[in-house]
Design goal:
single chain, about 280 residues, alpha+beta, Urate Oxidase, 2 domains, eight-stranded antiparallel sheet, two-stranded antiparallel sheet, 6 helices, 12 strands, about 25% helix, EC 1.7.3.3, Uricase, urate oxidase activity
Length: about 280
Amino acid sequence: YGKNTIKFLRLHREGKKHFVKEVEVCAHLRLTSPQEYLEGNNSLVIPTDTIKNIVLVLAKKNGIPSLEQFAIDICNHFMTTFCQVAYVKTYVQEVPWQRLHEDGVPHIHSFICVPDGIRFCEAEQCRNGPLIVFAGIKDLKLMKTTQSGFEGFYKNEHTTLPERHDRILCGELFCKWSYGECKNFDFDCIWKKIRECILEAFAGPPDCGEYSPSYQKTVNCIQMLVLSRVSQVQVIEVVLNNTFYNVVDMKNLGLTNDKEVLVPVEAPYGSCACTLGRKKFFEA
């Protein structure tokens, strides 16, 4: 049981310069005894309102140095404070506020919300067990207008999809990775590096791009690049929910439409997913 959707803004001041972190937290506990379920005995139950207040107090006392560290702080607090807690899991996601710039100059106290992906993390721990940390990015919308196709696929009497060697590749990406057992990582630096890997693998070189023969291959390229460059990542899951665009037929309007006006296909959506990890992690 636990408390979901604990939303708050943490404001940090350094002189005239302000820093903000707006987050949403979910904190769940499992107790050493199920007596509240089986017997109606609530003597070990930490009220969900108390859970919420603890999260807010930790934000006040410790700040949010990184999402992952804040999730770790919450786990550590419940494990070290309450002997009846057998397991704790914390989820934290961030509202994407970025500092506002005017003529290239960063503003000291103004911010803009930029929907270029939502950062999140999870931390979980069993009593006498290791602290495990996950992190990720979701709702990251990506598009490239060429260098994508889909050809040579299996066909039978139900196949109506034509082969395409030049199409728009567009989708909403979810990516989650595991660090394995928690260590003293620079979580902010790692998250930024992984995000850069995602964008690079999706788009290819800026002057020419890179051909994608399928959404599946693009997903695998993202995972392989992350694992090759970020040694701290043990397992990475990527889900790409596809958005398709159809070229508008303008012949009746007396116009030739050379893939200049397209409309999104509302439904159904395509989706592909893959989880990839280091061999040593699975062997362990």
